[in-house]
Each structure stands twice: as structure tokens, then as C-alpha cells.
Design brief:
Chain lengths: 389, 256
């Protein structure tokens, strides 16, 4: 099959500047040359393609929309286009970059001390250091405010106790951004690999996100010095602000997965022949599915561009990003299901990317705010009434 | 060292190709454009030389306003500055005219090396670099795979036919035309794309260079190759058929 040329039904490219398209081209070529050839094997073997980390760092993918400290200083639209292309390759690769940039570098840049920024951001930007983000706990997913992990102030240090789970990059990380309850407030801490009392173990048996490391983190009387607390990260809102950044990237990433599924199905339908030697693309029921997919992808693109533009104008609200994440992941998942259907039995094979995207998107639908939670955020935005419990 | 890379913007390989109304060129309205592939390798070779020996890489391009996009992509990949000879949209230049313009602009840059692709993906004449060298009065070598820069001289590896290679040494300044596929092309990094914003693009008008704009060669007609179908039935006994078939394959088709 020829290289990926994007999906553009409605002259969407005319909404992007030449520089934005150049950024997309870099990400697209990187994925085509480096991710696509290896991802099938990675997924089968359940390993992350870690040999790509440094190259992604050199290209500027980590924390691309952050400014200073070795970050590329891209706009949010440019950042979104990178996420789209990465997830066209695989959700696991996009997740790695999302976590590194939005959940580790962003909180350090936003809530960290100057010393923390200087020490960690250049290394995280280059990929020399890998980060993870610890918020979710075994008993607290959609309701992180109920977290049980504690941070006890002791002689100028903080002592952490608790469990975090579903942590992308967990065991691979040199640095964990961890939220715990300390002195009555939720607080953010930097915990370095090798700190006594801090351990991680990988979660096995995943049938989704197989090319991504997912771990549990354990803190048992884990003592971190006071200077490892993120001075600005006090209150649950600060943790949620990181999620807003990551969700924004997911909203774009899902388009990439949807594009790959749609394009695979479209090309397949043109060459697969059934009944009188006619391509299945000539059947009305097949065309209806393709029409639905391209329509939804186009709407998702327009939503992403608009949220990106208002985010660049500092006007995007968390509730806007909730709509982007919820809608785009939902349609991407449906595109993956329809594409699987159009590919018939071949659709379940890893020779095609569709089943892999489908399985990945089931994770993407749940993580970073489930579909339901985003519905409630949108609901609160339009009624003024929180309905979370 | 100062390296000048002459690049051309050509119609993208993925673009649909239709003959235009005047039947002299392809329809450009619905086309996409990209850097001529061998020129991309010339740029890569130049950037690698700069990494090894220091100095500067400048990009030179003769083309309409839209070619500025290709120039900016080259700057994003790491070229330091650019010279754009801006041509009118429908300028019909032959290789002689293009090479003369490029040579005149190149002389002002006083480069140690001029690199360009061995041919263009659209016309495929393979003349521009060579004519440019002649116009500048510089030595040249074509179909280059490796460049060993030795200060006052350069030793290059040329690709000949049939798996043969040739090593040539010549004094600098020199013009080299670069073969495709000799290295892995780099991506424009995000930092490179951002930096390109502030890099200089000097724009020259073709008229300023004093090169006559009357092409010596023009394309009279462009057309799709007509489809020819021909079938011959070989008659006779099986033995005779086989003998005649072998004879035809040997003398007419020349595949044996």
C-alpha cells in the first residue's frame, strides 16, 4: 500500500499555515518511516518501540507546545497535528509523547521551581529522561479527589505512602510526577527512579495498548526531600489542569487513528471483489459506511482545529477540550469498528492496522476522562449543575 | 566552506497528471509541489559536509513565487540562507536559460562547492548542473555518490553503469550533480522549522541578472503515449512455431 497521504475531504488543509503543514509533514514522515514498519511486531510482542525515544526528542516532539528549556515552542495546532500523525501510527506511541509532554513536562513548567525546570525539562525534551504521571489509584479512577495516597510532612521531607495504577511509562520512567494528599491538600511531587520505598511493576495481560508500557507504582514510606514538591501544584485542580493538556492532544490523536482505519477500509473496498467480480466499494451498504466515516472524520478535524485555535488564543476551557476528546475518540472508535467490518475476516488480522487501532481506542475512550465523565463536564457547562455523583 | 545548493520545485509525485489546455505542459492548478528528489539529496550532502567541515549552506532556486515554499523547507532542514530568483508564473525556461540564471546568481555567492541534483523529476534533462558549471567556468562531475572535501580539492565517487564506479579529483570551486538515494534524508526538526522563520531569503528578479528570456528550446506538444496493441499469431507445427517464436524473440523483441 502506498504511503499515508492524509484524509482531507473538505479542504481542511486550507485551514493550516505552511509552517503547520511542514510540522505535520515531519511527524508524518517520521511515523511512516519509523513507526509503521515496526509497530505490528511491537504490538504482538507487547513492547514499546523505545529505540525511537531519542529520535523523537531530537525532532522536538516532547513538550512541543511548551516554550523554553529546550522545548520546541510550537503552537497548539502544530502540537495537535503531531499527535494526529503519531496516533495514525499507534495510540501507544502517541500516549508516550502525551504523557511526557502534557503530564510530566507541563506540570514541571507550570508548577515547578526554577531549579526543577532547569534540571528536568531539557532532559525530558531530548528524551534523555522519561517521565510518568501518577494520579489514578486502584480505587479512584474517575474520582481522583478520593485518592488515598498520602504525603506526610516529616522533618522537612515528605513521606509518601500509597498505590497508583494504570500509569503509562511507569516502569520506564526516570521521574514520576505523583499526586498525594498532604496537610489536607492534594499536592504534586517529583519522585525519582531509585528513591527508597518507590517501586513499579508492569501490568500484564492487556489486549489493548500493547505497544505501550503500563504500570502500577507503589510508595512505601517513600521519603522525598522538600525541594521535590512542585511548589505550585497544590489542590486537585492543578492535577486536572495537566489532564486538560493531555486530553487536548488525544482529541487530535484520535483523528489519526480514525484516518488510518478509514483509509485502510476505503482502499480495501476498492480492491476486494465479491459478487460478479465487482469491488465491494460498489455496494451501497459499503458506501454508506465510508460516507459516515469521512463525514465524522471531517467534523472531528473541524472541531480539533477550532479548539486548537481558541487554545492558541488562551480562550479554550476544559469543557471545550472535553467535547473534543469525547467526540473524536467516540467517532474514531466507531470508524475502527466499521472498518473492521468492511475488511471482513481480514479485519481481525494484524496485517492491517484496524484491529490494533480498535483495541487501542477502547483504552483511549476510558483514559484521560471517560466518555461518561466528559459528557458530565459538558453537561455541567451547559446547565451549571454538576452531576458527577 | 561555502556550499551552494541549487534546488528546483517540481510537481509532486502523488499529484494527478493531466495535459494542460495549451498541450505544452501539465495542468498545474490541481497539482502539489515538492522539492526535486535528487536536489533533496544534494541538500542532504551539503548539510553533512557542513556538519563535518563547518561553514555555510545556501540554497539557490529559480522558480515562481510558489517555489518559496520549497526554499523554506530547505531552510527548515538546516540551510542557512537562500537566494530565490523569482520567475513569472508561466516562464518557459529551457535548461540553458535556467542554468544561465543560476550561474549568474551563483557567481555572486562565491561558493567553494555548488551541488545540485543530477536531473529533475519533471523534465529529466540532466543538463542544468553541467551547463551551470560551463557558464561559471568551473570543473564539474556528475552522478556523485560520495564527496570527500580536502580543502583545495574534492575527491568524488561517481556512479557509472553496470555496477562500476569512478573516483575523480578536481580543484574547487566545482559543481557536482548528486545521485538520488545516497543518504538518508533528514526530517525538518520542529526547532528547525521555527528557526527558518528568521533566515534570510534574498529575492532576485530574473531581469536583474541580464539573462535573455528567450528559450533556445521549447516544448511544442505534450501528450500521453498512445496505446499500441499488436498481436501476431505464429503458424505451423509445434516445432516450427517454437523455432519462429524463438527467432522473433531474438531478432524482433530482442529479449533473448
Amino acid at each position: 500500500m502506498a504511503g499515508f497521504r492524509g484524509v482531507d475531504y473538505m479542504m481542511i488543509d486550507s485551514l493550516f499555515s505552511e509552517e503547520e503543514l511542514m510540522v505535520r509533514q515531519t511527524a508524518r514522515a517520521f511515523v511512516e518511516d519509523n513507526v509503521v514498519p515496526v509497530i505490528r511486531g511491537c504490538y504482538r510482542d507487547g513492547v514499546f518501540p523505545s529505540h525511537l525515544i531519542r529520535q523523537m526528542g531530537e525532532l522536538g516532539f516532547f513538550g512541543a507546545n511548551l516554550e523554553g528549556y529546550g522545548c520546541a515552542g510550537m503552537s497548539n495546532v502544530e502540537y495537535g497535528l503531531i499527535m494526529q500523525e503519531l496516533e495514525r501510527g499507534d495510540s501507544g506511541v502517541r500516549s508516550f509523547v502525551s504523557v511526557q509532554g502534557a503530564l510530566v513536562m507541563y506540570p514541571i513548567l507550570t508548577y515547578g521551581s526554577e531549579e526543577q525546570k532547569q534540571r528536568w525539562l531539557p532532559k525530558l525534551a531530548s528524551g534523555e529522561a522519561i517521565g510518568c504521571f501518577g494520579l489514578t489509584e486502584p480505587g479512584f479512577g474517575s474520582n481522583p479527589g478520593g485518592m488515598l495516597t498520602t504525603a506526610r510532612s516529616d522533618g522537612g521531607d515528605w513521606v509518601l505512602n500509597g498505590e497508583k495504577t494504570w500509569i503509562t511509562n511507569g516502569s520506564a520512567a526516570d521521574l514520576a510526577v505523583v499526586f498525594a494528599r498532604g496537610d489536607g491538600r492534594v499536592r504534586g511531587f517529583l519522585v525519582e527512579k531509585g528513591t527508597k520505598g518507590y517501586s513499579s511493576s508492569d501490568i500484564h495481560g492487556k489486549l489493548s495498548m500493547r505497544a505501550s508500557v503500563t504500570s502500577s507504582l507503589s510508595f512505601q514510606d517513600c521519603r522525598v526531600p522538600a525541594e521535590n514538591a512542585l511548589p505550585g501544584a497544590v489542590g486537585l485542580k492543578t492535577a486536572l489542569s495537566c489532564l486538560t493538556q493531555a486530553r487536548y492532544g488525544i482529541g487530535w490523536g484520535a483523528i489519526g487513528a480514525a484516518m488510518d482505519c478509514y483509509e485502510t477500509a476505503r482502499q480495501y473496498a476498492l480492491v476486494r471483489k465479491q459478487f460478479n467480480d465487482r469491488p465491494i466499494a460498489s455496494h451501497q451498504l459499503v458506501q454508506e459506511k465510508l460516507a459516515w466515516m469521512i463525514t465524522e472524520i471531517t467534523k472531528a478535524q473541524l472541531l480539533a482545529v477550532q479548539v486548537g485555535r481558541i487554545k492558541d488564543g488562551q480562550r479554550a476551557e476544559a469543557a471545550h477540550i472535553s467535547m473534543l476528546k469525547r467526540n473524536n475518540v467516540a467517532i474514531a472508535l466507531e470508524c475502527a469498528r466499521l472498518s473492521r467490518d468492511l475488511l471482513g475476516a481480514n479485519g481481525i488480522m494484524d496485517e492491517y492496522p484496524v484491529m490494533r487501532h480498535l483495541a487501542n481506542l477502547e483504552t483511549v475512550k476510558t483514559y484521560e476522562g471517560t466518555d461518561h465523565i466528559h459528557a458530565l463536564i459538558i453537561g455541567e457547562r451547559v446547565t451549571g449543575i454538576p452531576a458527577y455523583c | 566552506m561555502r556550499i551552494l545548493v541549487a534546488v528546483k520545485q517540481v510537481i509532486g509525485r502523488d499529484a494527478p497528471l493531466r495535459v494542460n489546455a495549451a498541450r505544452t505542459w501539465v495542468e498545474e492548478n490541481d497539482a502539489t509541489f515538492e522539492i526535486n528528489e535528487p536536489d533533496a539529496y544534494a541538500l542532504e550532502a551539503a548539510l553533512q559536509l557542513k556538519e563535518k567541515h563547518g561553514g555555510e549552506v545556501a540554497v539557490l532556486c529559480a522558480g515562481p513565487e510558489r517555489a518559496a515554499k520549497t526554499i523554506r523547507e530547505a531552510l527548515a532542514k538546516g540551510a542557512d540562507r537562500a537566494v530565490h530568483i523569482e520567475l513569472p508564473e508561466a516562464a518557459a525556461l529551457d535548461a540553458l536559460g535556467t542554468a544561465s540564471l543560476l550561474a549568474r546568481a551563483a557567481e555572486a555567492e562565491k561558493p567553494d562547492l555548488v551541488l545540485t541534483g543530477l536531473q529533475s523529476d519533471d523534465l529529466g534533462l540532466g543538463q542544468t548542473g553541467v551547463v551551470m558549471a560551463e557558464r561559471m567556468g568551473l570543473p564539474h562531475a556528475t552522478i556523485i555518490m560520495e564527496i570527500d572535501f580536502r580543502g583545495a580539492a574534492v575527491r568524488v565517487k561517481r556512479e557509472l553503469e553496470g555496477g562500476w564506479f569512478q573516483y575523480v579529483e578536481m580543484p574547487v570551486p566545482a559543481v557536482l550533480t548528486i545521485q538520488s538515494g545516497i543518504a538518508k534524508l533528514r526530517y525538518a526538526t520542529l526547532m528547525g522549522i521555527k528557526k527558518a522563520r528568521s533566515k534570510e531569503i534574498k529575492t532576485l528578479a530574473a531581469a536583474d541578472l541580464g539573462i535573455p528570456s528567450h528559450p533556445a528550446a521549447v516544448i511544442e506538444r505534450l501528450y500521453m503515449p498512445p496505446r499500441a496493441r499488436q498481436a501476431q499469431i505464429v503458424e505451423g507445427t509445434p516445432q516450427e512455431k517454437a523455432a519462429r517464436l524463438v527467432d522473433k524473440l531474438r531478432t524482433e523483441a530482442r529479449v533473448l
